[in-house]
Amino acid sequence: MNSIPAGRIIRFALLSLGALMILAPYIFMISTAGKTQSDIFTSSLSLIPQRFYFAENFAKAFAKVPMATLLWNGVVVCGLIFFFQVVVAIPCAYAMAKLKFRAAQLMMVLVMLGLLVPIHATALPLYVAFDRMSLLNSYTSLVAPFTISVFAIFMFLQFFRAMPDDLLHAARLDGMSELGIVARVIVPNAWPAVTAFAIFSVVAHWNDLYWPLIVVSKQAYATPPLGLMYFRAAEAGDDYGALMAATLIITLPLVAAFLLAQKRFVEGITMTGLKG
Amino acid sequence: MSSVALAGNVASAAALRARSEDRTAWLLVAPAIVLLLLFVLLPVAAVIFLGFTDFELGYGKFRFVGFENYAHLLNDRTFRRSLWNTSVYTAIVAPVSIMLGLGVALLIEGEGRARGFFRTVYFLPVASLIVAMATVWQYIFHPTIGPLNALLSLAGIPGPNWLGASSTVLYSLSIIGIWQSVGFNMVLFLAGLTAIPRELYAAAHVDGAKSALDRFFLVTWPMLGPTTLFVVTISITNAVKVFETVKMLTDGGPNKASEVLLFTIYQEGFVYLRVGYASAMTVVFLAILVVLMLLQYRVLDRRVHYA
Amino acid sequence: MSALSLRGLKKSFGGNAILNGVSLDVEAGEFIALVGPSGCGKSTLLRILAGLDHADSGEIFVSGRDMSPVAAADRNIAMVFQSYALYPHLTAGQNIAVPLAMKRLSRSQRLPLVGSLLPGQKEIRTGIAHDVREMAGLLKIDHLLDRKPGQMSGGQRQRVALARAMVRHPSIFLMDEPLSNLDANLRVHARGEIVELHRRAGVPTLYVTHDQAEALSMADRVAVMIGGNLLQLAAPDVIYNDPAHIEVARFVGQPRINIIPALAENGRVGFEGIRPALLEKVANGPVSLGIRPEFVKLSPSGRSGLAGRIERLEFLGSEVIAHCRLDASGDSVVAKLAPQEARDLIAGMKVGVVLAPEQAMVFGPEGKRLRIAAGARQEPAYV
Question: What is its main location (chain C) (predicted)?
Fold first, then answer.
C-alpha cells in the first residue's frame, strides 16, 4: 500500500527537476532583463535583481531595436505565407482526394517529393533568381518560396479523404458547382485541420532565420529573429540586460499565444506532426 | 430504337461528366502545380545543374566543370569537418532527446492533476523563438558571468568555456538542441500513448504481466512503434538541419569546431558567393535526406498489419 | 465451498454508486450469465473480480481463498474482453502464448533479445509452443497461428481471445460481452461453441452480457443486475416465468411484459374485474399487474375481455404482435399471437382484450414480487 505514494513522489520529483531545467533559461532571461550591468557581472546566481532595472533595460531595447517594425514584419510575413499556403493547398488537396483525374497519381508523387525538400536545398537558385529580379529585401522574396506547402497539401489530403463522399454527393444534388463545394462545404468543415496547420506554419516561419538571413539585409524588412541578430551584433559587448529585455519582448508574442491556446497548440503539433 | 439512342446519350453524358470533372480538377490543382514547379522542382534541378558548374555570383560567365566540385568536396577539410560535426551533433541530440521525450511522456501520462502543467512547461521551448532563446543560453554558458559556471564554482568545479572552446562547443550546442526538442518529442509520444487502447493494459494485467516493466515491453513499446519511427526520423532530420544556434552563437567557431552542414553551405553560397560549389554541397545534403527517408520507408515496410 | 463467492461488493465513482453490495456464488463447473442493461455495473463487477479495479468494500473468495490482497496477475482468473484486446503486434500464436510466458519464464528470460540467450528458457519455450498448439487445435485455429490480429476476421479474433484465456487453465473464466462485436449470424453460432467449450473444460464461468437472449440460452443460472443491485439469480426458466422483481420481469422477454397499474384492497388486487387474492399482507394502495404478451388473447367479436382497440399490428412471420389500448383505463397492452389467431385482425379495429388472470403476476409498490394465493386462480376472472 505504501509503494504507490512513493512511486508517485519519485515521478513528481523527476518531472519537477526536468521542468526546472526546461524553465531555467526563461527564469534567467526574466531575471537578467531586470539587472544593472554591474549586477550582472557580480551576482549571476541571485535571481532577484539588487536594483530593479527593468524599465531602463526595456527602454534601451526599444530604443536600439525597432521592435514595432520587427513584430509587424513577422506578422505580415507569417500572415501572407499562411494565407497563400491555405488558398493554394485546399483546392489542390480536395481535387486529389475527391475528384477523379488523370494526373492524380503524378500529383501524389510530386507531393511526396516536395515533402523531402526543405528551403535549405532550394535556397541557392532562388536567391540567384531573386537577385536577378532585384527582389531581395522585399516581402515578395520573404513570402514567395513558401506559398506552396506540400506539407499543407498532404495534411489536408488526409483530412479530406476521411470526409464522407455522401456529403459531396448531397452538395452536387443541391446544385453546387465544384468551386462552390470547396468554398461552402469543404472549407467550413476543414477548420480543425486549418487551425492545426496555422499553428504549425506560424511557429515554423516566425522562427525561421535561414531564409530571411539570405534575402534580407535591411532593417526595414527584418523579421524578429533577424532583428534580434542585428541587435546582438550591433551591441557586440556584454550588455546582457538590454539583450535579455529585447529577447523577452521578441519571445513573448508566440509564448503568450501558446499559453492562451495551448490545447490547440498541442493538438496542432500532434496532428501535423504525426501525419507528416 | 429509342432505347439504343438513350443508352448512347447516357454513355456520352457520362464521358462528358468525366471530362468536366477532369477539367475542374486541373483547375483546382493548377496553382499548386505551378508553384511547385517554380519553387521546388526547378530550384532542385537548378541546384543539381549548378553543382556541375563553377558559377559564382557577381561573375557573368560560368563553365561546366563536371565532377570537379565533388572531387574537391572529398578533400575539403572544412566540409569534412562540417559533415563530422553534424554527425556528432545528430548522434547526441537525436537519441537523447528521443529517450528523454519518451521518459517525460511516460511520467506525464501517469501523472494526475499536474499533467497539464508539466505538458505546458516541457512544450514551452517549441513555442519559443529559438534565436532568442539561443542568446539566453549564450548568457547561461558565459564563461565568467554565466550562471552555469557560477554554479559549478560553488561546487568547486572550474567550469569550461562552454561555447568558446573547441573541445566543448559541440556539446554545448547539443545541450541547447536537446532542450529545444524534448518537448516536441514528448508531445508526439503522448499522442501515441493516448492512442493505445486501455483494454490492452487490462489484458496484460490479467495475462500475468505483473510489473510495469513487463507491461511496457508487452504493450507500450510495441504499440508505440509507428510513433517512435516517426519521432526518430523527424529528430534526425531536424538535427541534421541545425543552423540557427550555430549562426547565432558560434559562427562555426572556434576553429571550425562547430561548422555544421547548413552553416558551411550558407558560408560558401551566400557569404563567399561560390554558388556552384555550394550547390554541390547542397546535393550532398539532399542525398542525406533522401537516404533517411528511404530508411524510414524500409522500416515501415517491415512492420506489417498494425490494424 | 463455492468456486467463487462475492460478499457485499460495493463500489462508487465520484459519489455515484455503481455496485450496491453485490453477493453471488458461482459453483464448480457452473456457467452464470450476468445480464443487465448497459451501465448497470456488470462490467465494473467483472473488472473488480479480475483485479483490475478495487471494490470500496466487500470480499471476493476463490475456492475459499480471499482475493483482496492478490494482484490481477496472480489471481489465475482469465478474462475475455469485449474488444478481444489482442496484442496487435503479435501473431495469434504469440498472443496465446503470453499468459504462459508470463507464468513460466523468469523476468530476465522474458527480456527482449537478452532473454533468448539465457539457459533453460529453450525447454520452457518448447513447452509453451506445445500447449499453444494444443489449445489452437481445440479451438480449430491451427491455421491462424502465424497471422496477426489485423489479418483475421472478427470471429477468428474472438477464438484467439478465447484460446488466450483458456490456455493457462484458469480457476475462473470471466467474459465481458465477448460476442457483441460479431454479426448476428455468427453470434448465434458462437453461443453454442462457448457453451460446448465450457462443458468440456468445466471451468466456472461468469459471462457478462446485455443481451437477455444470450443469457437465457447459454447459462445454467442467470443473474439479473439492474442499477448496481443483483435482483435475482436463478435458472433461466425461473427468471422468465417467475421473476422476483418487476425490473427483472421487464428486462427479460421480448416483447416486454405488460405492466398495468392496479390497486390493492384488503388483500386483493383489483383491476377491471381481475381480483386475485394475495398471500402476503400488503397495505391498500397502488401495485402493478404483469402479464406476458403471450398470455393476452384478442377477441375480434369483442364479446369477451376488456373493450379496447388495436393501434398497430407487427407481422414477424411466426408470430404477430398486436399493440392495443384499453378503452376504460387507457393502458396499452401488447399481445403476442400466432398468425392464425391474428388473421381477422386489422389495425384500428375494436377488440376484446382477454388477460389470462392465472398468469398474472403482481408487483408491490417497490417492485418486489407479491405471491398470489393458489385459490385465486379458480375464481371467475370476469364479473
Answer: membrane
Torsion of CA C229, C231, C236, C239, to 10 degrees: -150
Contact (CB, 8 A) for B264 and B82: yes
Contact B24, A103 (CB under 8 A): no
Provide the grid cell at B260: 555544421
Do residues C203 and C109 make contact, with C-beta atoms less than 8 angstroms apart?
Answer: no
* B241, A120 contact by CB (below 8 A): yes
Q: Highest mean pLDDT range out of A32-46, C312-326, C363-377?
A: C312-326
CATH at B210 = 1.10.3720.10
Among A154, A172, A15, A146, which residue's Cα sits nearest to residue A78? A146
Domain-located, residue A20 = no
Q: Are C72 and B205 in contact (CB < 8 Å)?
A: yes
The domain that holds A162 is classified in CATH as: 1.10.3720.10
Q: Three-class SS of residue C346?
A: coil
Judge whether B22 lies within some domain.
Answer: no
Count of structural domains, chain A:
1
Spell out a b/e string for C19-31, using b for 16 or more CB atoms within 10 Å of the CB, else e: bebbebbbeeebb
Looking at the domain assignment, is residue B289 inside a domain?
yes
pLDDT digits (tens, 9 = 90+) for B246-284: 998 888 878 888 899 999 999 988 898 888 899 999 999
The tens digit of pLDDT for each residue in A100-122 reads 777 788 888 888 888 888 888 89
Q: Which CATH superfamily is domain C4-241 in?
A: P-loop containing nucleotide triphosphate hydrolases (3.40.50.300)
What pLDDT, in 10s, does the model give residues A155-197?
888 888 888 888 888 888 887 887 788 888 888 888 878 888 8
Is A11 a member of any domain? no
pLDDT value of position B307: 41
Instruction: Render pLDDT for B84-125 as a digit per residue (tens, 0 to 9).
Output: 999 999 999 999 999 999 999 999 988 877 888 898 899 889
- What is the domain extent for residue A149? 63-225+253-275
In a domain, A52, yes or no: no
Rounded to 5 degrees, φ, ψ at C20 are: -105, 60
| Section B70-96 average pLDDT | 92
Residue A231 within any structural domain of the chain: no
Contact (CB<8Å) B262/A209: no
* Chain A residues in contact with B122 (beta carbon < 8 A): 18-19, 22
Closest partner residue to C88 among B211, B213, B307, by Cβ?
B307
Say if C69 is an interface residue toward chain B (CB within 8 Å). Answer: no
**What is the CATH T-level fold of the domain C254-369, as seen in this structure?**
OB fold (Dihydrolipoamide Acetyltransferase, E2P) (2.40.50)
Q: Which domain holds residue B184?
A: 68-303
Instruction: Tell the residue number behind the cell numbers 499522442, with chain if given.
Output: B191
Q: Which residues of B touch C78 (CB under 8 A)?
A: 206
Give C236's pLDDT tier (boundaries 50, 70, 90).
Answer: very high
pLDDT at C262 over 60: yes
The count of CB pairs under 8 A between chains B and C is 83
Does any CB of chain B come closer than 8 Å to the CB of residue C149? yes
Domain boundaries, chain C: 4-241, 254-369
Read off the pLDDT of residues A188-232 as tens digits, 9 standing for 90 and up.
888 878 888 888 888 889 888 999 999 998 888 999 889 888 888
Alpha carbon of A134: minimum distance to chain B alpha carbons (Å):
14
Question: Would an 8 Å CB–CB cutoff place B122 in contact with chain A?
Answer: yes
B104 within domain boundaries:
yes
- B contact residues 43-102, partner A, Cβ 8 Å cutoff: 43-44, 46-47, 50, 57, 100
What distances in angstroms separate CA C214 from CA A61, A208, C84, C237, one per listed residue? 76, 63, 18, 13
- Of A39 and B50, which is predicted with more confidence? B50
Distance CA A73, CA A69 (A): 6
Number of domains in chain B: 1
